[in-house]
Amino acid sequence: MSVELAVIPVAGRGTRLLPLTKSQPKEMLPVGRKPVVQYVVEELNACGINRMLFITGPGKTAIENHFDIDAELIENLRRTGKEELLAELAFERANVEYFYTRQRRQLGLGHAVLCAAPVVGKQSFVVALGDSMLGMHAKAKVVARMTQVFEEQNADAVIALEEVPKEEVVHYGIAKPMTKPADVFQMADMVEKPSVKEAPSRLACAARYVFKADLFDYLKETKPGKNGEIQLTDAIRAMINDGRKVLGVRCRKNEKRFDIGNFHSYFKAFTEYALADPDYGAELKELLKSLVK
Ligand code: UTP
């Protein structure tokens, strides 16, 4: 059966972005003209995923509101002669079904994914972090390649990996390939935030995964790790240690990860998107040039 469902965890507190995230979800922060999570849904939908299950938490209702069909707003735009703006709401009518469940205590990403278990049942599924975009304007197709590899090779898990500069391995889960890494390869281990010296490669987890429902058995057994949180990485390591087939798929050049979880990469992402804006990008470029002179 093909993979149709994505679990999108969006329940984290986003403390690295305070005070911005005190009363608004980081997943709703604007990058160019859209909120982060809209790009995530558009990317997944373009990869053949049409059911989105959000794991939400306190203060995240703006996400649900964003994907609702707002009949009153549509009527208002028509009545006031702003029909041209209706195109901006076309995403509301995409071929997507939305589901929401709550993570009632923020016990980490692994725990957030485990909250999906009763809804997911026995089907295989994608996990896509709600605060990370891949590729400019949702153009990444890595999830489509991942689900294809997952089915063809009867894998237990497939993980998207992005090559990062050597000094950045300290921020990510880093893959240890079993053999010389090709576009698709089997993983021997995964090391969470290694030192530059200890890193087994420069291939960092890139916020997209495909799993068999068996992942939930591993998550249930996963003890709180770093920061007292239940880590998805620990469950994946347990799968590998158990001899399960965990594959890595490399992101291509145009599938760069934009992480919105910290100001450093959020500022960069916003600037890159704003510079690509068809109406205002050129003007902004001139402004930036004059500012840095
Ligand atoms: P992060 O690892 O960035 O954690 O989440 P965080 O708690 O949101 O942020 P900081 O560390 O306090 O700044 C990665 C993704 O996993 C979700 C987040 O919403 C984000 O989309 N997440 C994280 C959960 O759903 N639940 C959690 O308990 C933790």
Q: Averaged pLDDT, please?
A: 95
Mind describing the biggest β-sheet?
A: 9 strands, mixed
Which term fits the overall shape? globular
Uncertain segments of ≥5 residues (pLDDT<50)? Answer: none
By CATH, the topology is Spore Coat Polysaccharide Biosynthesis Protein SpsA, Chain A
Q: What is the helix tally?
A: 10
Number of spatially distinct domains: 1
Helix proportion of residues, in percent? 25-40%
Radius of gyration from CA coordinates: 19 Å
CATH class: Alpha Beta
Architecture (CATH level 2) name: Alpha-Beta Complex
* Largest sheet strand order: 5-4-1-6-11-8-12-10-9
Structural class: alpha/beta
Cofactors, ions and other ligands in the entry:
uridine 5'-triphosphate
Spatial separation of the terminal alpha carbons? 57 Å
Q: CATH superfamily name?
A: Spore Coat Polysaccharide Biosynthesis Protein SpsA, Chain A
Give me a quick take on this structure.
The protein is an alpha/beta fold.
Tell me what you see in this structure.
The chain has 293 residues and is of the alpha/beta class. The protein has a single domain, classed as Spore Coat Polysaccharide Biosynthesis Protein SpsA, Chain A. Helix content is 31%, strand content 23%. It has helices at 36-46, 61-67, 71-79, 109-114, 117-120, 142-152, 215-221, 232-241, 263-275, 281-292, and strands at residues 5-9, 30-31, 34-35, 51-56, 97-102, 125-128, 132-134, 157-163, 173-177, 184-192, 203-211, 246-250, 257-259. The protein has a nine-stranded mixed beta sheet with strand order 5-4-1-6-11-8-12-10-9. It has a two-stranded antiparallel ribbon with strand order 2-3. It starts with a strand and ends with a helix. The structure holds uridine 5'-triphosphate (UTP).
